[in-house]
Design goal:
- This protein has two domains: 60 residues, Arc Repressor Mutant, subunit A (Orthogonal Bundle); 177 residues, Beta-Lactamase, CATH 3.30.450.40.
- Helices cover 48% and strands 19% of the residues.
- It is built from nine helices and eight strands.
- The strands form two sheets. The chain has a six-stranded antiparallel sheet, with helices on both faces.
- Helix 2 packs across helix 3, helix 5 runs antiparallel to helix 9 and helix 6 packs across helix 8.
């Protein structure tokens, strides 16, 4: 068993940006393993999601590693680092603030602070996971991934119409993602819930990768007159959290 775990680690560490795909024969020859046992091990890793097999029979890293990485972030320093910043943001603007990351193609809320202004936004009503295409947080998290991964997420979860403003067309989503990447923030203008608007910004780790996002949720009538100020404050708060995680881009 220990030998199998060691081999698993050696195989997984072969995959990087310069060599994202490997075949069984290549791995067998490089590591000096028998081809049959290499095939069995890589096939087993694909079954549990640590690897994924391409149409050509080669292997790439699997989505399970993304989930594990996000779970690590969620359960270690991210929430603790972000909480004081969320509290400061909520105290200054008295609107609801949220922290979220992407989990299995859905937006997973890690933390929230309810606003104190009239007509408070209570995010508990929408559940801990929501579709990314119709939320400001989700758009930020999608924009941090390559388009091929976004297409996989959309194929798996669909572009559901939750309100009349929801994005339901893949080409429209592509345009929106490109805009978010360029501008560095995202809006949700009554796309998930009627009368609710949000602005979100990305949180990056020391490598510059988008690992999470924060947002402010505001009733639509209040959002329209203060959206620029809310956007600026949210972007600055996300940048503050990112710097605390070691990002200085």
């Amino acid at each position: 068993m220990l030998g199998t775990i060691k081999k698993t680690g050696e195989i997984l560490t072969l995959f990087d940006r310069d060599a994202p795909e490997w075949g069984v024969s290549e791995v067998s020859e490089l590591l000096g393993y028998a081809k049959s046992s290499t095939h069995d091990l890589m096939s087993s890793l694909a079954e549990i999601g640590l690897l994924q097999q391409t149409d050509k029979g080669r292997y790439r890293l699997g989505w399970m590693l993304v989930d594990l990485g996000q779970a690590l972030v969620a359960t270690t320093e991210l929430r603790a680092v972000a909480r004081p910043v969320l509290e400061e943001l909520a105290a200054e603007y008295r609107e609801s603030t949220q922290l979220a990351l992407m989990d299995a193609g859905m937006v997973l809320y890690l933390d929230q602070i309810s606003g104190t202004r009239p007509i408070r936004v209570v995010m508990n009503d929408i559940g801990p996971r929501v579709h990314p295409h119709c939320t400001a947080l989700g758009k930020i998290l999608l924009a941090g991934q390559p388009w091929s991964q976004i297409e996989e997420i959309v194929t798996r979860n669909e572009l559901l119409r939750l309100t009349e403003n929801s994005i339901t067309d893949l080409e429209q989503l592509k345009i929106e993602v490109a805009r978010v990447r360029q501008e560095g923030f995202a809006f949700d203008q009554e796309e998930m819930m009627g009368d609710l608007c949000c602005v979100a910004a990305p949180i990056r780790d020391y490598t510059g990768r988008v690992v999470a996002a924060i947002s402010q949720s505001v009733p639509a009538y209040r959002f329209q007159r203060s959206r620029n100020e809310l956007r600026r404050a949210t972007v600055e708060a996300a940048g503050q959290i990112s710097r605390r995680l070691g990002h200085y881009g």
